[in-house]
Amino acid sequence: MKVANLAQLHECIVACRACPRLVQWRERVAREKRAAFRDQQYWGRPVPGFGDPHARLLVCGLAPAAHGGNRTGRVFTGDRSGDWLYGALFRAGFANQSTSTHRGDGLRLKDCYVSACVRCAPPANKPTPSERDACLPYLVDEMRFLTRVRVIVCLGAFAWDGALRALRTAGSIAAPKPRFGHGSESVIGRYVLLGCYHPSQQNTFTKRLTPAMLDAVFRRARQLVAQRVLEVSSR
Fold first, then answer.
1. Domain presence at residue 1
2. Domain span at 24
3. CA-CA distance, 218 to 92, in Å (whole number)?
4. Are 86 and 107 in contact (CB under 8 A)?
5. Cβ atoms of residues 189 and 166 within 8 Å
6. What is the largest CA-CA distance in the chain?
7. 46 pLDDT band (50/70/90 cuts)?
8. Number of domains in the chain
């Protein structure tokens, strides 16, 4: 389906039923629920991106969490990963508050848009290659509509690869393929890709990722946004 703007893209994403395994899993989780959220109405559908449509920074993750975005209907909302991410965005000046608990909590992003490579919560947080590929056009369209984006922070190797695939599909070529690493940077056309370990509990509990490391990434993102805008405008 051809869409003309972000609003239409959001509607298309939310209505998607392209991947039977993901549809079955997200809806099962929404029915059975976690005990702590038994009284809540789960979203149970694909989760669109969220943020400032005029953003210069795009943050890309893997997929919604089963009891996070799949419950709340907003990416990186209602789970520990979101606590880390939005806390860092707040400290870097990209968000008006440091917490993200539900869609009506008042959170607003400034010059930042948050998305994911896969829009449905996958079992064990592991989408299949075909599920990954089925979702890719949504990220490509988001980049097409987010015309001011100049920096893409990729949370994890999966998001790094997904962003590269989206850029390749959109006509930006990166050869040889740049390798992911925390703090790694790669210039591709008008964009700079910035690598960051995913703020999952697997990384934060083991201190592979610390608040200081996450803050450093978003300080660098702010510097790169200003730098890229100046470079592009001077051409």
1. no
2. 6-233
3. 6
4. yes
5. no
6. 56
7. very high
8. 1
Examine residue 194 and state whether it is found in any structural domain, yes or no: yes
Length of the chain: 235
Residue 226 lies in a domain: yes
Q: Does the pTM of the predicted model rise above 0.70? A: yes
Euclidean distance between CA atoms 65 and 78, whole angstroms: 9
The residue with tokens 């200081």 is 212
List, for residues 192-205, the tens digit of each pLDDT value: 999 999 999 999 99
CA angle 217, 140, 113 (to 5 degrees): 40
- Residue 174's nearest CA partner among 193, 155, 159, 157 is 193
129 cis-preceded (ω within 30 degrees of 0): no
Q: Could you tell me the sign of the dihedral formed by the alpha carbons of 156, 162, 163, 165, in that order?
A: positive
Q: Which amino acid is at 193?
A: L
Element (H, E) at 215: helix 211-233
Q: Domain holding 219: CATH number?
A: 3.40.470.10
Alpha-carbon distance of 127 to 169, in angstroms, equals 20
Does the pLDDT value for residue 161 go beyond 60?
Answer: yes
| Residue closest to 49 by CA, chosen among 138, 115, 107, 5 | 115
Report the DSSP beta bridge partners of residue 109: 95
State the sign of the Cα–Cα–Cα–Cα dihedral 11, 16, 22, 25. positive
Sign, CA dihedral 80-100-214-55, equals: positive
Rounded Cα–Cα distance for residues 41 and 26 (Å): 13
- Asked whether residue 93 is domain-assigned, the answer is yes
